[in-house]
Fold:
Amino acid sequence: MIDVQQQKDTRRVYLNEVGIKDLTFPIEIKNKDGKWQTTHAKISLSVDLDPEQRGTHMSRFVDIIQENNRIDLNHIKNILSIIQEKLGATKSFIELQFEYFIKKEAPVSKKISYINVGVNYKAWLDKELEFEMTVITPVTTLCPCSKEISEASAHNQRGNVSITVKSNEFIWIEDLVKISEDSASSPLYALLKRPDEKYVTEYAYNNPRFVEDVCREVKLKLEKENISKKYEILVESFESIHNHNAFAKIISEDMN
Structure:
């Protein structure tokens, strides 16, 4: 059969990326303890396209991910290398959006439950492999101002801490989650008994944080742990007594 995609294109226009996007597919992610966790992801795969080539072979992207659905740095590099080889490209790209589950132990009862965090993972292979990962961790924030001016209690709410890092070295999702939770007023848990609720409520009350506080704490912890020099931090609080949200952001000088 005629390979239409391989036909020469006389317009000679280089395309930075061509490929497929939003393919929903099961994947396996390696936990920090060495085990593989199964989840599903929205996946985008692409390559650059030579100006003389009319099109790329879209079906090959699906073939490749079906045969290579384990995700860590070595597997990602292998996937991107295979894409370049199979599609005759010089650059290859992958993006995954998925939920990652972390086992949590309640602070008093020690009951085990799982908390889900959002992950957006991008990687590209040109002369070397680079990747960008965003981990979105749900947390609790308690308002220092509310605590200071109220005779009892203080307004508190859920929020998200989003940490985006660029690197060519592997970074554990769990490490970014811990930094986010340690920077907030309190972590979140899926399962709490009454003694746990008492502990978590009082812990947050004794650890009030503005979004500005959380954002600064994340920055200091990222730098202390030497995670990456390229990062963006976004903290958003879903305010419980206002009809708007509050946010704070830090972008490192090396990020752009």
Notes: The chain has two domains: 1-103, 106-256.
